[in-house]
Design brief:
Elements lengths: L2 H15 L8 H10 L20 E6 L3 H12 L2 H4 L5 E6 L15 H13 L4 E6 L5 H7 L2 H8 L2 E4 L6 E5 L7 E5 H5 L2 E5 L3 E3 L3 E3 L1 H4 L7 H6 L2 H11 L4 E10 L10 E10 L2 H11 L8 H8 L11 E4 L1
Helix pairs in contact: 3-5, 5-7, 11-13
Length: 316
């Protein structure tokens, strides 16, 4: 049985039970269908060409969160090149599960706090840190340490777990034609995708491209149609200005929920090209980009480059 047959045969049965790793239930789909007409429809503004070099990946190595972030932005050309005075910044980490930082299933809160500080120091008027967790939002925010770390750094951290946080957009895909997408991201001057590198039972890995699913209200649609293609088409619709992958440490099995065996890489990967960033991060896990279906699918849509030989990888 191939992946599509499996999904079409049992997908909705799993969804009704709350699909492990995605926290889905059929009410999400029904709510979005019933209320879409009450939500303003608009196309996302064009993702502005990044001020950083698209063919460059920065790999910051070490164990100190502040140093990792400072070195990464410095090698890119400085945070001030990206974040201008008065900018509204949105960070999208992964705090989808109620795990503590040491369990390595959510983005490191100290790394997030370091980025918040950098953005505010550059003159950002606000920095929002958002995700759509599939467990209790308050517990996820608290257990992950993200709420406390972000607020201490001067930012705002909250879950976008109500349909009021979304607006209907034309995504332009063949499978994903429309979606209820995050208003916060659509209105941001700077959007930074900030996943953790970890195992995922359905897609092998959670990386930047898959992390974007936390910006969509009806994730059930992804699983009931074609998960891989939907991830790729969502990536083509809205590219981050920057992707930062927390590859300091992550679970290598039982993902995405955990707990699982933990491996340390002590790296943080920065890049404009979301496909290239995911491709490099996958190699840390021992995978080729072609092993991760959604990376290949996104590359075919022109989202980014899979061939690391065509990129400049700078380690700092």
């Amino acid at each position: 049985m191939d992946r599509r047959q499996f999904i079409s045969g049992v997908g909705y049965g799993l969804l009704s039970l709350g699909l492990a790793g995605c926290g889905l239930n059929l009410s999400e789909k029904n709510d979005s269908q019933q209320n879409a007409q009450n939500t303003q429809s608009k196309q996302a503004p064009p993702s502005s060409e990044s001020v950083y070099a698209r063919n460059k990946l920065i790999v910051s190595e070490g164990s100190d969160p502040n140093s990792l972030i400072e070195k990464g932005f410095a090698a890119l050309g400085g945070i001030g090149v990206l974040v201008k005075k008065g900018a509204a910044v949105v960070l999208k980490p992964n705090f989808s599960v109620a795990r503590k930082p040491e369990e390595a299933a959510t983005t490191n809160p100290q790394l997030i706090a370091a980025v918040v500080k950098q953005c505010l120091a550059a003159g950002a008027r606000e920095v929002k840190v958002i995700d759509y967790p599939f467990q209790s939002p308050l517990v996820c925010l608290t257990n992950s340490g993200i709420k406390a770390a972000v607020e201490a750094a001067g930012g705002k951290a909250y879950a976008i777990n109500s349909q009021s946080f979304y607006t209907q957009v034309d995504t332009g895909g063949k499978t994903l034609k429309t979606a209820l997408f995050s208003k916060d991201v659509l209105s941001a001057d700077v959007f930074i995708n900030f996943p953790i590198l970890k195992h995922h039972s359905m897609t092998k890995l959670t990386l930047g491209l898959k992390n974007m699913m936390g910006l969509v209200w009806d994730r059930g649609y992804f699983h009931s149609t074609d998960l891989i293609q939907c991830i790729a088409e969502l990536a083509a619709f809205r590219k981050p200005h920057l992707t930062i992958v927390d590859a300091t440490r992550g679970i290598t099995d039982n993902g995405p929920m955990g707990p699982g065996a933990i491996r340390e890489w002590n790296q943080v990967v920065f890049g404009v090209d979301p496909v290239a960033v995911d491709t490099y991060a996958a190699t840390l896990f021992g995978h080729k980009a072609t092993d991760i279906e959604y990376i290949t699918a996104a590359a075919k849509l022109g989202v980014g480059e899979m061939d690391l030989q065509k990129l400049t990888v700078v380690k700092v």
